[in-house]
Amino acid sequence: MSAPTASADDGTSTTTPTLELRDVNKSFGAVQVLHGVSMKVYPGQVTALVGDNGAGKSTLIKSIAGIHAIDAGEFLFEGRPVTVAGPREAAALGIEVVYQDLALCDNLDVVQNMFLGRERRNGILLDEASMEQAARDTLTKLSVRTLKSVRQLVSSLSGGQRQTVAIAKAVLWESKLVILDEPTAALGVAQTRQVLDLVRRLADTGHAVVFISHNMVDVFEVADRVAALYLGRMAADVPISQVDRSQVIELITAGRSGELGLQSAVAEVGA
Fold it and tell me: Which domain, by its residues, includes 70?
């Protein structure tokens, strides 16, 4: 596992980013969705990816996950240029995505969900004991105490507990970068608290985390960096200590805030 990252005096990391994108473009037919997007995600840090609906967040994370091939630009993982041609290649690098729908099966228990499609076998039989122990070990590493049993059916779990299982499933596969798509959406106050604590612990165990959210309270509570997308362009990718909530909202809605952001954002929108 990677060690937590060090920081320079200006709040920027001095560690090699787990993920670095340089001038990434992506189009669907005649529609260009991503325009020269660059961003860095560091080990041991949470990077909040924010932007209005239609800003390109989903396309960006699906490009990172290998679902969409980028048209141009550079994709570096742990400092090395890589080509991610599909989800299997992304997973082999150590990239895991927890989508908003969680992709959990209600009729299976926690262990079965965590190993779904990657079951361990002992001969022709499933190695239930090994999988159960690995599930427990992963939950313990993340200091998860909200689950009574790893043999509970997912259908019996709360929204926060389901998020916990989905995140633990991503960690189980020796991931280095975990992308969380709106993990606190539709959760109550107590469940949101549980998930935010887990996101923080995820970074504290050395993972690089991308946290996608529209909730600025959650963003400022858990994030180390913020990357703001505006109409498919990266308006800013900075330590969160360098901005306040109103600046981030301006970056999301107008592409700039004072001297920070896209210099020609207004002109481009009006063109």
Answer: 1-94+175-271
